[in-house]
Design goal:
6-stranded mixed β-sheet, single chain, alpha+beta
């Protein structure tokens, strides 16, 4: 699990003065081992760590650029640093900045794909009351960031994973009931329209790239995600894994007919 979980005792922590990227009080974690990367640390909401961890691993598994993320094993000495027992380390990307101008993105196939992928991920996992965030690094291209409030979480749920499994199960079922009733196709249309307007591109261009992401998402297997779930259960209460499994199961089932609808739509629009 060293690939997914790091020890707080291996890092020194300092306040990270940065607006954006979610959270109010963040740390910069500097590793004692200089061969390892610095990490941006979120810890305020009980769901921050698992949301960032799960969303980033799903993104990378389906080919979307996202930071490496790690769950913290917090030592007794470091517990007073964190507002919850759960902290996530997010790869600190050097020279990470705002997006290039949209015409520059539109003129680069790689940047255009990265940007559209961010909107595709947002439509699958994001909350449309929360702003989509992504940034640019010369060495990486456009990278999706700030998944803290994905999976339909909000600030008033800050203590969600501090309860026992019975309460977590009840609260999880409320979210999953909402996700089951929510129109994923509506979220997809909104995200596609936003991307098309920002890049001044036809919807067909956006939907064609959405299809690449959606097909890969629909093909996700339990085997691919098993290490992620295993790491999650080593840090979080047992029912946490079941919540994310249920969320992804619902979205994977709902995306299949949407793929067919988009195929019909793109065929119609290109005629």
């Amino acid at each position: 699990m060293a690939e997914y979980i790091v020890k707080s005792s291996d890092y020194s922590f300092d306040i990270f003065e940065h607006k954006g990227l979610g959270g109010v009080q963040k740390y910069i974690a500097v590793p004692a081992d200089t061969s390892k990367t610095k990490l941006i640390v979120k810890h305020e909401m009980s769901y921050s760590a698992c949301n960032e961890f799960v969303a980033s691993h799903i993104a990378k598994t389906i080919g979307i650029k996202a930071p490496d993320t790690y769950l913290f094993e917090i030592s007794k000495k470091d517990k007073s640093l964190f507002k919850t027992p759960y902290a996530v380390g997010i790869e600190y990307i050097e020279r990470f900045s705002k997006l290039p101008p949209y015409d520059e993105i539109r003129g680069s196939q790689e940047l255009k794909t990265d940007f559209i992928n961010s909107f595709a991920l947002y439509s699958l996992l994001g909350v449309h009351g929360d702003n989509l965030q992504c940034g640019f690094a010369q060495s990486r291209g456009i990278v999706s960031v700030d998944f803290e409030q994905y999976f339909n979480f909000s600030d008033d749920m800050s203590k969600f994973f501090l309860h026992d499994n019975t309460v977590i199960e009840t609260l999880s079922n409320h979210i999953l009931d909402y996700i089951q009733r929510n129109s994923l196709y509506s979220d997809v249309r909104i995200s596609a329209k936003m991307a098309a307007e920002k890049l001044n591109l036809p919807l067909t261009d956006i939907y064609k790239q959405f299809l690449v992401v959606f097909k890969r998402f629909a093909e996700l297997t339990d085997e691919e995600l098993e290490p992620m779930y295993e790491a999650l259960t080593m840090v979080y209460p047992d029912y946490t894994e079941i919540f994310y499994y249920g969320f992804l199961l619902i979205q994977k089932q709902k995306i299949v007919p949407i793929i067919d609808e988009i195929l019909k739509l793109t065929n119609t629009l290109t005629k």
